[in-house]
Amino acid sequence: MMNKRFRYKYRGEFDFSEVSFVDFEELLKSRHPAEVADILLEKSTEEHDFIMKNILDRFLDFIYYKVQNGNLYVPNLAYPTKRMMDTELEKKVIEIMNNNLFPEIILYILKFFTRNINNPDTNLYLANLITSDQIIKSVYETYRLIKGDIMTSDPGKRSLNVKRLQQFSMHSDERLSSPLDTAARLKYILEFFLIKYDLGHIFTREMILLSGD
Known about the structure:
Layout: H1 24-30, H2 33-46, H3 55-68, E1 71-73, E2 81-83, H4 87-100, H5 105-115, H6 123-127, H7 133-147, H8 155-166, H9 179-196
Antiparallel strand pairs: 1-2
Helix pairs in contact: 2-4, 7-9
């Protein structure tokens, strides 16, 4: 698994200031992975529009789109997913997500997972690209946090942590931010990780039981 962060100081300019549309595919194919990450991180720090999606949100949306239109991949019948048709592009994305964009990408990944309410099984499209121990550990720790909110009696307090992850308004419908539903979605992702990797140093199947302590 990739844990070391490497930053590449790129040459030249890639100016997003005049455009709202970013051709992520062209950017990925024409630049070094670490250079792509530097460009995305620099642009992310410049964006202050709370209405429009951050460029890292849009980057994850692009990745999701590419996998959604890819090839079926079934490591286990209970956990079907997909892979990009372009294997070279997929390798670059994996390196950027797990190495070059760490740790900034973590909150955006968690937001993606917790917001995907209507098609939570497709969270595996993104999860299948995660190889980093640190990112997997962050998903596990978030699961533990949300699981701890399930028995909170006050509805507002019960959904508070989920809403923060989703970046929803504190006044949004509580049903969109149920800690029980969210924990179940994260548990499904963690079970998928256990199929792919030896994660005993982070968590075991017994440690992610919803009925456990």
